[in-house]
Amino acid sequence: MKNLNIDTKQRKIILVMIVIGLVLGALIFFTSKPKPAGEEAGHGGHAEEKHEHGKGHADGEHHGKKAESGHSDAKGHGDAEHHEGSVKGAHGGNLFTEGDFGLEVLLAEDGGPPRFRIWLYEKGKALPPAAANVSATVTRPDGSKEEFSFTIDKDNLLSKQSIAEPHVFEATIAAQRGKEPFLFSFEKEEGKVKLSDTQIKRAGVTIETTGAARINSTLQLPGEIRFNEDRTAHVVPRLSGVVQSVTADLGQQVKKGQVLAVISSTELSKQRSELMASQKQLAMAKLTYDREKKLWQEKISAEQDYLQAQQALSTAEIAVQNARQQLEAIGASAVSSGPLNRFELRAPFDGMIVEKHISLGESVKEDAKVFTLSDLSTVWAEISVPAKDINIVRVGAKTTVKATVLDATASGTISYVGSLLGEQTRTAMARITLANPQMAWRPGLVVNVEVILNQAEIPVAVTVDAVQSVNDSPTVFVKVSNGFIPQPVVTGRSDGKMIEIVKGLKPGSRYAAAGSFVIKAEQGKGSAEHAH
Question: Lower Cβ count inside 10 Å, N or C end of the chain?
Fold first, then answer.
């Protein structure tokens, strides 16, 4: 073998390469070194420390008012330990665990009202139901809370109280196992109809708030609009004659004193002639009286002549007054603008011509009903009151009158209740006077009359259209976040607009009013699940 001649420069290069190789080998060796046991998961040791911290919660953090802060303190636990997840237990309920301890919660009906059933576990094995003290709190969307205690039922704990519908709530289960407290919470949204604010607005659903209302107890009776007979008159000539002209038409609105027709009457001519003759006699009697009075005062004539002249004057004045009153009695003026036989038939008050029985050239009698005039600014609503209701329908009672074929409503009071019963109908007649400025209430119109018997202040009421029938039970859809929940209620009195809620809702609850049927339809489509 030949000797290799290596100079100083080459030696230095080889030495540098050897050092670099040693450094790289050391790096590979240390970076590939395995981790100690317990450090494989980056959060292993830390998670165990948090779990031990959760077990060390004070009892006050899991019970009573401090439960909220205690639950917040336990956020280091996994979600499955405190909140409802997809984990199901052996009995079909939701399984919760913390450390070695666990419990399964089931909302069970068992053919009766829904109740909580709870099974206890330790390290996955069943525990006797007496192994822990358990209680539950249910918080409703309106903020109200319900406390639940438990009794032993075979191998599980059964809540003593049932859980009312709807099953939309947040439940907190508190368990005490020896000295260790545990707290688990979960939510139920059974039956919730999910709708966004945009969908609610688009569907035309209005939101109202429950509160106090005045409910009227009413009695509904049939009725009919009639003329106000106190403001209805049959216009008659009050003297015979021949019709010269007719200026009023059927349905015409006329004013008081307006000429309706002109009649030529010989009887009127005689009466006016008598008035004129009486007036002339009065003038002569006045002259005679003045002359005799002056002569008597001057002692020229005897007092007897003066007294006779005075008597004649009084008789003439009476004759004139009598003739004038006869003309006034038939509605004729003392002085005619035309012939003495011209009689102007005038309207006695403002009103409408509702009947007309006169024509040009017709001969009419003094008692002929040539016109019927009615003031329709007020009308009567006449109602038939059955014999059984006569004692509760009284004068002065407030009423609401509704037309059966028109969108018209008016308020009034009963002004008259008849004391006699009809032989055929066995009902009494009652009357309401209604203002009719727009002439909407036409005589002959059939109406329904609600008589308000009494009024009551109700603490909780909703609009009538808010109550829907769900599963044959009256239900109100209560507004919650992102939708509505069906709330069964017990209803009471109603006046057709508002309805009393005896049980099921509190004052201040927001609910679906107009358009609530849309929510019921959405519920029927299956948008709300009903599963325990």
Answer: N
